[in-house]
Task: structure prediction
Amino acid sequence: MPEARVHKPRHLPSGGPLRRHVKPKGARRAIVLAADHPAVVEARTIFPTTVNEQDHPRVKNLLTSGHNSRKIGKAVTKGRWRGMPIFTLTLEERATCPRSCKEWRSCYGNGMPYAQRLRDDGWLMTGLAFEIEALAERHPAGFVVRLHVLGDFYSTEYVGFWRLMLARNDALRIFGFTAHAMESEIGGAVLALDFDFHDRCRIRFSGTDEEGLGSLVIDHAADSQHVLCPAQSDATECCGTCGLCWTMNRTVEFVRH
Ligand code: SF4
Result:
């Protein structure tokens, strides 16, 4: 990872703030936390005040319009999901992710101080079910949920929740990525979702190019061996205008940013 800098905790003589992470200069440089950074050790975000439960006044909806995210987009404009609005779900990075994630220290959430992360208060799935059913009524021709802008499937029960939602709501489509290995218990449950709902569910596996369901992070565009995300090179505006992740049976690549 030649372009990334590791930021070590620095104890200032004045007793001032510990500068454990620094926004790197220049584009496409990952913010890599030190191995002993508390967020790395404790499996949490570096922005703890952005993590809230669903009853917090700052949380208006659990599923947020993709309009709020430049790289996601408000609606799909091409392909078989054309015309469907997009919503996003953001959980807490690392807290919900497997420690095996290859980007554990360099998670792009390290550079997202304003993203509102949801914590499961024990009722998150209940709240999500209400919102999904309301969206299914409002958009009977279909709507898309991007899982998870940050975070991951945190239990097999939670994967089972999405299975139930897909089974109950024909209008629901989901896409996203997981850092769980296909061979793991949670990864296996996600893979089964991909197969059982192949026309409405496309969760890709990070760090692999297997099964046409892979996604890889590469250091430079010149290293590409598969298909580079066109939104990263501004060849398309956003996921809504692209759709490769849920239509293509090839591995998608992202340049580390
Ligand atoms: S390849 Fe397309 S759908 Fe996938 S993340 Fe990039 S813009 Fe979104």
User: Anything to note?
Assistant: The CA atoms of residues 53 and 120 lie 6 Å apart.
